[in-house]
Each structure stands twice: as C-alpha cells, then as structure tokens.
Design goal:
By secondary structure, the chain is α/β, with parallel strands linked by helices. It folds into four domains: about 5-170, no CATH class; about 210-375, 3-Layer(aba) Sandwich (Leucine Aminopeptidase, subunit E, domain 1), CATH 3.40.220; about 395-460 and about 490-570, Leucine Aminopeptidase, subunit E, domain 1, CATH 3.40.220.10; about 585-720, Leucine Aminopeptidase, subunit E, domain 1 (3-Layer(aba) Sandwich), CATH 3.40.220. The chain has 20 helices and 29 strands. The strands form five sheets. Strands 8, 9, 10, 11, 12, 13, 14 and 15 form an eight-stranded mixed sheet that branches. It has a seven-stranded mixed sheet with strand order 25-24-26-27-23-22-28. Strand 8 and strand 9 (about 220-230) form a beta hairpin. Helix 9 (about 315-330) runs parallel beside helix 10 (about 355-365). The chain is globular and about 90 Å long.
Amino acid sequence: MCNCGDIKKELIACMLNAVNEHLAHAAGVERAIAKAAGPEFVMKSKESAVCLQTISTRSKYNGYFKQNIVSNADKVQDEPLPKSYKEPTVSETDPSTDKGPSKESTKGDLELVNTIELPSSLKKEFDALQMIVPTLNIRLSESGEILIRYFDEKQFMLRNICTLISKIPRDSKRISNSLNVSKADLDKFIHEEQTSKTCLVRYHRYMDQEPLYVFCWIHRHLVIILSYGNATNTSCDALLKWIPCGLEKKDGTSEKEYTIGWFNEDKQKPFDATCKEFLHVEANYKEITEIPRHVYKKMEIRNIASVCVPLTGSETILIKRFVEYFSRKAKKGRIQERLFLELCIPTELKMDEKLCNMKDCIEKFMDKKMFQTVKLSGININDLSQDQAIPISIEISTDSIENVAKKVDVFVNSSNPDLAMDRGFISTQILRLGGKAIQDECNEIKKRGKLSYGDICKTSSGRLSCRKIYHVALYSEWVPVCKISLRILTSLMLICLKEMEKDNYTSIAFPALGTGRLGYPYFQVAMKMFNVVRAYGRENPDTKIEKVLFLVHDQDTICKHTFGHVMEAHRQYIKLEEDDFIKKTYKEIWIPARRLTVQIWPEKALLGTPSVKIVEAYFVFVQNAAVKGFGYQCRLSVNLISVGSQSELDEGIAVLKDTVNKHRFTSVLVDIKDIALLDTYSTVVEWFVNLPFVESLQLVVSTEVFNNLNPEKKLEKKDHKLSELVLCVWGSRYKEVMEDLQRIIHG
C-alpha cells in the first residue's frame, strides 16, 4: 500500500522504520516517528543504541570549559545508557554530594542551557543546534564537568558545540589579600547565587604567571633569554633586585633616584616570589660597567645557575655590558657548566616596540657566531588548565608507526639539527618504512643550513601512508633550568599545529617527544604535550584540526603508564580543600649545588606552594604495612614502604631510588612521620644526591620533629595560605554576581 498521509493517523499494528546504526531519529520519517511517539520512545532508542559516543570535559577549578579528554568511541561501545537511566530534574540536584558524573547515572546533573541564563541570540543558537540534532544532550555536573552525549560522530558537531560554549558571557576577577570567609561559607554563598540568579560560579587558586619567553640565544656555556611579564614570577634561581641609590643634594639632604631598572616599592616577601634568592644591586649609572661583574661574582659564590634581570627596555648601555661580559666569560671557558641570563621587561604586548628594540639591541652586542638563535612561543601553558571545551580529539596509541601513519595526515619526527635519520628510534623506523627518499629530502634541506633548536622542516612521507612528515629539533638534553627544554618542546608543538592548519590537514601524530635517548622526564613531557593541545584548541575554537594522536612505544611500559595517567588526571576535578583556607607553617631550604628545593611539613604536606606546585610520586614509610588512607591526593605514584628494622629501611631506600630513577620523577614527597628511625631532614636529602631528575622534595615529619628542626637556622620558615582567588562567573548576570561575591569575600 502506498500512502502519503499522516503516519500518526494510520491504523496499523507495526511500523518499519529505516534508521541509522546509532538509532538517531534526526530527520525524515524517523524524526516524525520520534516526535509522535514522545520522549519515552527516544529514551528506549538510546538504551538500545550499539554505539554511544560520550565526550567528557571537565573544569579544573572554574566555569571556563576546555576539552579534557574526548573518549575513544571504541571504549564506550559496550557501555550504553543503563535501563535505569532517567532524565534528572532541577530538584534532584544536591550540591552537597559533589562526586561528579558517573558512567552509571547522571543523577544530580543539570542541563547546561537551562542552568545558565543566556542572551536570547545565543539561546536561539543552542535551540537551533538541538533541533538539528535532537539526540544532543549537554549536561553540567556540580563538579563543573560537561557531559556531551550525542549519536552523530561528525567532528563538526563538536566544533559547533565548543564554539557556542565559548560565546557564553563570563567574567573573572582576582580577589587579593587575606580572605575573610571560610570555604564552607563561600560554597554556600555560591550555591545560593547560582540557584537564584541562574548562573554558574567557579573559583580557583590564583597562580602567578611566569614571564613569557620570546627568544633565546644558546651557547654551550651560556643561554641569554629575552622575556616579558612580571619578573618576580621568574623561573630563574635568582632575581636581580634593584635598590635605589641615594643622591646628596646641595643642602645636605638626600633623595632617592631610580635611574635604571624597575622597582616594586613594597618589600617583596620570599613567599610571594618564585625565585630562590635575590641579588641586590644598586641602580646607579655611575657604576654601570661594574654591575655585570658584581652579578657574576655573586652567582659564582652562591652556585646560582640562572638570574633574571628586570629592565624597562631602554637601558642600552646596561644590556650591552651584560651581554658582552657574560659572553666573554663563556667564550674563554671561564663558566664551568652553563649560565642562564634572562632579560625581562614589563610589557603586556608580545610585539611591543620596546621588546623588538631590546631584541635588536641584544643581537647588536653579541657575537652571533657564538650563539644559536631560537624563537620561542611567547605563551605560557598552564598544567591541567581546564577552562573551555575544545574541538580537538586527543588519543594515545601504542600501534606501530606504519599503522599510525594510516590514521593521520601528518607524522612528527623528533630529529636532530643535522637531520640524520639514522639516529633515534622514531627516525630510524621512519627511514626504514618510508624509504631513502625522505633522507634525500632532508639532505637537500640541510644544504641551506642546519635545523635550529625549535625549528621544523617538512618532507614527503615516502612509502608511509600519511601525507607529510614534520621533522623537529628538540634541545639536545634535558635542562630543567628556566624550563628551557620544555619551552622549546612547547614552541615546536605549537608550530606544528599552526603549520598543519596552513596546509589544510586535520590530524597529526606526535611521538612522546624527548623521552627516548634525550632522556626527558616522562611526566613533565606528558603534561606539557596534553596542555599544549588543549591551550591551542582553547585559543582557536574554529580550528580545522580534528585529532591529535600521541604515539607511545608499547614496550616502554613506564612511558605508556605515565601518558595514560596524565590523560586520566585530566578527567579528575581538583577542588580546593579546607586546608587551602587555613594558614599552615612549613620550612624550606634551597640547595644550589644540588639544584634541589626541600620543604619540611608537620603531619601533612599541602600542595600549590610557589616552589612546589605539583607532586609526581609519594613514598610513605610506615611501621605497619596495613596502614591505609594516608590522605594524599595522588598525582602519579604512591609507594607504601613498611619499615620495622634498619635492614628494611635500607631496602626501602633502594626501592625509592630505583623507582625515582626509572620513572624520571622531578617532584617527590617522602612521608616519614610514622617511623622513629629518622629524625633529621638531611638524612633523607642524602638519598637524592645522585638522583639527577629530582628538583623538589617534600618531607613530612611528626610535629615534634618539625619543631626541633633548624638548630643552625638554615631552614627558612614560611606560611602556606590561600591569599588569592580567581572567581569566574558564567551567564547573563555575571557582573551583578561578581559584585556580590566581592562583597562577601572582602567582608
């Protein structure tokens, strides 16, 4: 029978519906059926779907949404919505049970569009998107996680969603000084604001931004860095602090004259600065020729490897003296290891005229034959920064290079300045699989000059299935000073992403950069690679890039585990705890000869100090192996070591050293408060003498031991306190809500 009437009026026992494999009733007859049958029919279809793609994005601290992880569709094919699933209502939301969304249920979640009051034009865009894909369901958990469920696998849909989310009005304010409100009161107030004003409020700890590196000039004994931003947040060991020189007037009185550099009138507390030491120098042009020599001598005496010099950008003579003096020392081989000289100006514009003039000034006074120029990204990539959904899928693969090349347009090869592909695992495999033609192209490129650190070059893929190979040159060794190795890695990844956009490619594969023969720390590399992609997606919501794949060698179990852990860590919502609002004293010492920062805490260590922002591994020494729940928020590895005798202690120390070395941990926590065999911090510090990767050590002792430490006053007493917050508000009434929040916080 052929009938062109209304299907809702047909008196039939059964209806045959031709639908896609996802049971998505998006258009045509199936949409009419779904509309007539109602929401229960659509839900039953969801329960029966063979493939449900779930995209989970989480906010770390606030309401700025970035993509966390786009889960692999293969992993969720066997996890359809349970039959017990039902759409929650606003009344079901309980802010006291903030456990985040689970795979079993979305109870407690709110619909994103209904949670936040949107401008009418933006609301229409969301409604239009919902009409195009009626199975689209965007939900928001109390923890700040966005769950996007839909059946359409086309990547443009995710891009559209991310673009719309980025358009939601928002505001953020930095709240300084001491807080006059407890965390419980703040949480309660925020919940009331959200309920009454249909907005979304999140807050997080304010972390000072490091200066942005735009250029560096590398010599085997000296690295000169040009940066801009707040020099007090430098990652250098020491900060040059100009002190005003006193000038005597004719009447016998004196006045302060600031002649060079820039100044902070307030006395900078060590807690507020990220550097380890201050080098005080009088800002007097009369002795300008002697300033570099004074700085060099102080660095030599104190074993300081890096110093930041804050300038205004107009001190041509001083720049000349610094560049010439330090270059002369490096050329003559007077510098035993490697020194880092950072010249920083306080400008907010990347291409500011002062910055360009300063670059020209540095290059004018240096011997260009000595140095290799490296252009850096000029941006900071924050760890686990999650403030906006991004349209790029991030995946980890342990497949072969040959198979991965079939899945992407661009394959990245971690090469060397000579572009010799017979060195390194990835290069040799590409040469073997792709053929000699790739090396021939590299040789032609090399005729124009070596590949500089931070540069890339492009070749064909030979017999490999990808369309292009991007060859990149990382720094030749792991150098933690000023994070120079990571900064070059960051710059290279950003260049690759920008270049593939220009070449109209949509997918790219990166190996675990630097973790092979260069020996970069696994955790540091994994964190940076994930965050670079996320930051790029945040800044470019309309990007053409659809997929970034991280290739990890299947036999490198430590690297594979670390990348997997970092991916999982991005799913975790890290909230401020009550301890963050409570003042707690700890002690700290910096050991320049070991390049090691040591913190000693009573009973429990707190995270997020200027010196130690993140901990990669925990080693807890206990008397009883059955002890559990020692209260640490694990980042990567927790090792419980039972100690009942000296022999067991020695065995535990050997385990610690072996684990730290194999995993290349850079930040470690050791908890010894439960054992009486150790009573001084120096004993534990000795364990790390020959562990080259460790940069920070947190040591947890009993309160009694903590109070008796520091007989020689070598340890600096500091206070951990949450002194600053960033409050972020989403929604049409964000200005009104922000004013209310500021009033309650400032009392």
